[in-house]
Amino acid sequence: MTAKYFCALATEQAGSENRASLLxxxxxxxxxxxxxxxxxxxxVGASVKSGASLMQLFDSVDEGLGGGRLPFRTRLDHLNxxxxxxxxxxxxxxxxxxxxxxxxxxxxLEAAAEIVFQKEWHSISLLDEISNRDVAQHLVDATQRFSExxxxxxxxxxxxxFYEIFEAKCDVSIFLTEDDKPSLLSPRFLCEAPHYxxxxxxxxxxxxxxxxxxVLDFQSLDPKLLKDGLDxxxxxxxxxxxxxxxxxxxxxxxxxxxxxxxxxxxLKADAEYVLEATSDIALKLALRSKGxxxxxxxxxxxxxxxxxxxxxxxxxxxxxxxxxxTVPDHLExxxxxxxxxxxxxxxxxxxxxxxxxxxxxxxxxxxDDIDLSRLxxx
Length: 378
Fold this sequence. Notes:
Blueprint: H1 2-14, H2 19-44, H3 54-64, H4 73-89, H5 95-117, H6 133-147, H7 151-165, H8 187-190, H9 200-206, H10 218-227, H11 232-241, E1 245-247, E2 253-255, H12 259-262, H13 267-291, E3 302-305, E4 312-314, E5 323-326, E6 333-341, E7 348-355, E8 360-366, E9 376-377
Antiparallel strand pairs: 1-2, 3-6, 3-9, 4-5, 6-7, 7-8
């Protein structure tokens, strides 16, 4: 798993146009191979000296297997020398060659995993890195189904993981009924389906099966995938190769049965591709999430006390803008995260927000309406 983690990092660097990232990828793939070979040494019971080089590890494992079984020795030797030049001399081939070396390293790991462990590389799990436990569990199930030779069930489990990552956010079934308690944190507000589909009229007109409740926003999808470092082509490949699924409000999974998938004679190859691609997407998103640094994690807010009730909340930092609402009698203060000069240069405005079951106040209030003597930071 450690070797696969390093390999995933190296593969990610190989997709960069930054030369420094590519050179880091060389070191990462070499480290992945070295860690992998250390595991192989233990598995085959080979003897090796402490501090053995990469090629010494390779030869020890190959000898333990009976000799002549591990592939790509010349490639690995070349990769090792390139890595030495990168690390100790700061020199390396051109970017296209660097990508080839990283690809060759991955090819070795894939081939050697089957030779040494009788285990396909993609089935080695990195799922502990995925924080979304539902996604991780679906991928565990998919891996198990693949190892059992149940390739259709593997595809279904992968689609469930895919659904949890992407499609659950585009479920318009929540618009079948009116929202009695509107909130900025409600599923209706957070829904990522296109605006034209977020209403009962669309559902009555266009939803013919439960699977039609999932409405992707095609216009914004590809840019969002690219922003997250994902390949849109891989996304659509998974979407095409797996059967549609839908999770009902009762937490029951529905699966669409189609002749195209049931009569597919290429199920094993499709399942192998989809399992690795879906796991790779989930891992990339998990690593990206861990790498984010958000100021809001330990954020404080001002509590703004008003001088009186009925204070207007403007849509902009301007008394000439639309009034989004007024402060009711029972509300003593609201939260604010910033202060700004007004658009008309008529003093300061505070950006405020307050959400209750039946009250939403978001906008700007003029400083003249705030009792600054009782201002607090919470």
